[in-house]
């Protein structure tokens, strides 16, 4: 209609929650690629917004990327979408070159595998006192996961070599959660995965990472809040 202002086709809106590591993946990727976007903070502990429920009716969770009003859900799908939808973005691609499908498949595998850090860590802090056997199992799992990631990283600067890419973006938002996991699981990341610990320090020097993540103390406060919400003593 005459007089109506048309929304630009490239308009991006990110539905997110401040401490979500999955949303932080998207924030880091958008920053790395130099793509401007609007941030929309969502309430995940109270009543979820109609916009979030409409945009992600299946899982009803963040992150959701709205591109010209069309929703893209799940963080790893969003990362891949950013590469494909914005091939001419100012920043580099997150995935290896399409000319190397093996490297792309390997990156996708390890990016998905990185979720296990969060899954095992969540099992640790959700344990109640007296669940010693379950604690040992959860600790063994996260130590194994971190060890596998450490081995895959090896002596490389980043998971893709010299280039900060998909696996780095997928994994680095879990770094501020690790001190809490260490405390609940009674293990040391520095001893378990020393190369991964050094990688985390390198990643923290990147502006996209530093501006997207919160200090471990804030994350630990949020975990304490969640424990109260779930009635975990």
What does this protein look like?
This protein has 233 residues and is of the alpha+beta class. The chain folds into two domains: 74 residues, Glutaredoxin (3-Layer(aba) Sandwich); 129 residues, Glutathione S-transferase Yfyf (Class Pi), Chain A, domain 2 (Up-down Bundle). Helices cover 54% and strands 7% of the residues. The chain has a four-stranded mixed β-sheet, covered by helices on one side. It is an enzyme of class 2 (transferase). Keywords: Cytoplasm, Transferase.
Task: Describe the structure in brief.
With about 230 residues, the protein is an alpha+beta fold.
Can you give keywords for this protein?
single chain, 233 residues, Glutaredoxin, Glutathione S-transferase Yfyf (Class Pi), Chain A, domain 2, disordered N terminus, cytoplasm
What secondary-structure arrangement, pairings included, does this model have?
Blueprint: E1 12-16, H1 21-33, E2 38-41, H2 50-55, E3 64-67, E4 70-73, H3 75-85, H4 101-113, H5 115-126, H6 132-153, H7 166-171, H8 178-185, H9 189-192, H10 194-204, H11 207-212, H12 216-229
Parallel strand pairs: 1-2
Antiparallel strand pairs: 1-3, 3-4
Helix pairs in contact: 1-3, 5-6, 5-8
